[in-house]
């Protein structure tokens, strides 16, 4: 077998492994003019031991936040202020500034920066 075929096979195997090892649920949430939020469900699920801490505000189903926003049954910034930021502050873990989660087009501050 040629070195090129072996290389292609190895790359294909590594690609499958990389895809399988990614976080199983990365949710994309629309964030208005501030830009979207990439939310790692697995990360939060491993840190917060109670689903109800978040899901008391919205149902446990994919797209629930957007559906509530579309139906105008979820107040603007309610999840962010009442769930996300309050939990991050009480747990002393996670970002508490808007730009740390929202992906602004002009967001040039590195994600590891502690501002």
Q: What's the main sheet like? A: 2 strands, antiparallel
User: Mind telling me the CATH class?
Assistant: Alpha Beta
In round numbers, the mean pLDDT is 76
Tell me which CATH architecture applies here: Alpha-Beta Complex
Note the overall shape.
elongated
The low-pLDDT segments are: 16-23
> Strands of the biggest beta sheet: in what spatial order?
1-2
Structural notes for this entry:
This protein has five helices and two strands. It is mainly α and 115 residues long. The protein has one domain: Cytochrome C3, CATH 3.90.10. It has a two-stranded antiparallel ribbon. The longest helix has 19 residues, at 3-21. The radius of gyration is 19 Å and the shape is elongated. The N and C termini lie far apart (54 Å).
Brief description of this entry?
The chain has five helices and two strands. It is mostly helical.
Topology at a glance:
Layout: H1 3-21, E1 26-29, E2 37-40, H2 41-47, H3 52-55, H4 64-70, H5 78-91
Q: Notable features of this structure?
A:
single chain, 115 residues, mainly alpha, Cytochrome C3, two-stranded antiparallel ribbon, 2 strands, 44% helix, 7% strand
